[in-house]
């Protein structure tokens, strides 16, 4: 019997990753290409979509070469991408603006305007929080500021849609990416026309909405040759990275929560139908016809630790840097950190939020600050998780992926703060494996999303230390009170 492999392509905020797996989820080869972000003004964050497209092509080609496999051995490719990007495109399909990514905060005034007027109604319809990250709010900024590319644009799309257009000549968007725009109704799976009217655009300027198992056709010969694959090989649209990270981790049943912590972070759970938080703490993004992902993203994951490492001019490896936190007992001797260095999304949804150290004394040393930042990032995720719990019930299992998941110290901290067993896949490419699995469903190579649970190489769980968990419960009460009280100072 011939060998069979599947590719997961994951276009993130900081890099493009192409991963070759066997059909049981074992990683055969991976290639990562860094994505450059540009900061033309304070609060503006832009990327070049053509550079990303070339990086994606090269990543796929090099991953296949690295895996030492033949074209005929690849059965399909699935597509994952980061949410909330937006670019303006002309009639020929050429970008006439850079891509504004989720971290772009230029539209915070437009977000405040919607929150103070029709915010509750918009959120109830879309399940998408009102925030500068969303294309809905970005479009309002473009309209109100008479942004020249907006005025000339024939179409508006995400980076993922742009790559699909380049490769297939189609304008299509999956449920989850559409849901993340803030212009989509997850109950009807259609664009909300009254919101489009607010932004000054029409339904014809957006892409056709399709399910995640949509097989894309008409692959351009020159693109296939550049990637080193057959043009007739099935490529499947997949979904957003959040939905696919849950799938790739196996967190797809009630009571199963997935936490991703890289530069930023998120905590998510799959649910049937649509569940919207009464006080707008969480998002609810579609995944399939009858399921959604509920959860919350944080702007401040590993980026907070990188900031501290740079501030301290610590040139050691990240592993060595984090190991200092192990010299300090839980609670960092009373030092608390609010990790809002980059504004914040969930749970406070305030782009003006600022980071804070509380309880600093003359006895605190570098290792206390490192542990405090680690704990602050984890407390913030736990606070989002509490909001999620009010919608979906108490988590039974917590699955973790992302850069921090490689730190045993942080995994133990996570287990202690959440007071739950923490599961980590042997491969940290959960979104790419989720994308690859979705493509296998689309070509009927496997039968269901749930079947992926038997095809995830999983390490031993990290068990909570009950004594530490009890201590952290008391410390978290102080953290939550401080976080709640500080909101009024964020202006």
Largest sheet geometry: 6 strands, mixed
**Quaternary organization:** single chain
The coarse overall form would be globular
**Mean pLDDT over the residues:** 95
What is the percent of helical residues?
25-40%
What separation lies between the terminal Cα atoms? 64 Å
Structure summary, number of beta strands: 22
Provide the spatial order of strands within the biggest beta sheet: 3-2-1-5-14-13
Residue windows where pLDDT falls under 50 for at least 5 positions: none
Helix count? 16
Class of secondary structure makeup: alpha/beta
**Which percent band covers the strand fraction?**
15-25%
Q: From the alpha carbons, calculate the radius of gyration and give it in angstroms.
A: 22 Å
Plain-language structure description:
The protein has 491 residues and is α/β, with parallel strands linked by helices. The chain contains 16 helices and 22 strands. The protein has helices at residues 49-67, 108-115, 119-126, 135-144, 148-152, 159-168, 175-179, 193-199, 221-227, 241-249, 302-311, 318-323, 366-392, 408-418, 430-442, 466-486, and strands at residues 5-11, 15-22, 27-34, 46-47, 74-81, 87-89, 99-100, 155-157, 172-174, 184-185, 190-191, 208-210, 215-216, 235-240, 256-261, 265-272, 283-286, 291-298, 336-338, 356-358, 397-401, 422-424. The strands form seven sheets. The chain has a six-stranded mixed sheet, sandwiched between helices. Helix 14 (408-418) crosses helix 16 (466-486). The longest helix is centred in the last third of the chain and has 27 residues, at 366-392.
